[in-house]
Amino acid sequence: MNTQDPIKRVAIVGGGTAGWMAAAVLARTLGQQLFITVVESDQIGTVGVGEATIPQIRLLNGLLGLDEHQFLAATQGSIKLGIEFDGWSRAGEKYLHAFGGFGQPLGMLRFYQYWLRAQHEGRAESLWDYSFNAVAAGHNRYAHVDRIEGTHIEGLVRAYHFDASLFAKHLRALSERNGVSRVEGIVEQVELAGDGQIACLRLRDDVKVEADLFIDCSGFRGLLIGDALGVGYQEWTDWLPCDRAVAVPCESVDPLIPYTRASARPAGWQWRIPLQHRIGNGHVFCSEFMSEDEATDVLLQNLDGAPTAEPRTLHFTTGRREKFWHKNCVSLGLAAGFMEPLESTSIHLVQSGLSRLISLFPNPGLRQAEIDSFNRQTEFEYERIRDFLILHYFANGRTEPFWKARREMAVPDSLAERIELFRANGRIVRDGDELFTEVGWLQVMLGQGIRPAGYDPLAANLSESDLSRFLNSVRQAIQRGTETLPLHSEFIQSHCAAKPPAS
How does DSSP classify residue 343? Predict the structure, then answer.
């Protein structure tokens, strides 16, 4: 195509969650201007491990006009209030990375600085006693609450657990209703024009798919961005060395908890994602320290219910593409990069990539300045999430060789500076538009044993009695608010119960 011609045709290679998210969002926002085609094959499976999300997914669902209760029923979904980390600081200890805030602000300071002062004076309860999300999660309770009555304390902040394959099916139906075409087939050849742009895709049976803009959702292979266009891959295995995952579903058990669990294991960690009809489980591990057979045994020995399928192993390399958008090809999902699902960011990175693409969509044609801006913003997001994940591994107190090596690794300067700033007086500075907020960093650093030497001096402006009253009032309000909530299972049954899956 002439790079100054209007973009009229978009071809998405690969279905699954990433491909059908792209189709649904483009159809919703630019469907009147574009002819959108999804090329996928029923012969190619999807990874399908991205069953846990973060609260930003509610923005996606809102854009697409999805009814929350219908969506949860269609995807066998449940509510997620945070992620429990079990055994990361040391065996037997756990903490919750809870969504939402802590307490309520007072004056110019965030709540946690007052808590830090009280901790230094030996007078505060656990930080998580001041999180509505954490207390509700600990009691397996949930309801839609915008604010605790009679206070300025934020209500429960939610994300979801769901079946990724059912989510993709749900999005496919929505996309096709909005005019998206699907072509069944496997891409056998990617033809390039003289200027290096992708000209067309050739499928089996001599089917030809032409487009002005191509979106690569082909998974780890990166069929377009990597194989055809030769964009390299920057590995992050020195910091995030886990390179395998064994996944298996198992039968549901009571209670239906409203949070994901990440349990540390000798050479990695195990996820537990509770859905209505099953529990999703997986063991992420480093093959340098554990074999696939050993990892499978560890996983199967730590299931809450009987396995309902055979375990399957995934191989991956943590890192990202050198460029996410090159020529007339944008990569999303696993084609763009991979960071293990420790903080449930996989689906979010597809969502944020789509948001960025919509905000920079070519008009009338491809402009290098817009491509460069997309790549800079995406690189920043990936690297800040990378640092957050590295923190979990670096700040550990476990004794196994894998974990000892993680404590001794040299971390990126951006992370080292953040840790040292927190060690001084508990200060956390959010860098630009990075994904994780101050309270996210706070919970992981405190949860894994990093303690600040001091606190913000502004917190000393309260008298001891006023500080005690303030903290007690917050804690008691959260306790009262939690007592009024139904059990998570009762909420699901009343509002979004799914039909039993076909046997």
Answer: G
By DSSP bridging, strand 268-274 and strand 181-184 are: unpaired
Residue 409 to residue 389: CA distance in whole angstroms? 14
Task: Please say whether the dihedral angle defined by the alpha carbons of residues 257, 54, 342 and 40, taken in this order, is positive or negative.
Answer: positive
Q: How far apart are CA 474 and CA 134, in angstroms?
A: 14
CA distance 408 to 433: 30
What's the rounded mean pLDDT across residues 351-358?
A: 98
Edge-to-edge strand list for the sheet holding 337-338: 233-235, 319-321, 337-338
Instruction: Please give the biggest Cα pair distance in the chain.
Output: 79
pTM: 0.96
Sign of CA dihedral 467, 468, 469, 471: positive
Written in H, E and C, the secondary structure of 127-184 is HHHHCHHHHHHHCCECCCCCECCCCCCECCCCEEECCHHHHHHHHHHHHHHCCCEEEE
* Spatial contact of 190 and 224, defined as CB atoms under 8 Å apart: yes
CB 483 within 8 A of CB 64: no
The whole-angstrom separation of Cα 274 and Cα 269 is 17
pLDDT per residue as tens digits for the range 102-136 = 999 899 999 999 999 999 999 879 999 999 999 99
Q: Which residues contact 132 (CB under 8 A, 6 or more apart)?
A: 100, 145, 148, 153, 154, 155, 156, 478, 481, 482
Helix axes 16-30, 57-64, angle to 10 degrees: 50
Q: How far apart are CA 110 and CA 439, in angstroms?
A: 9
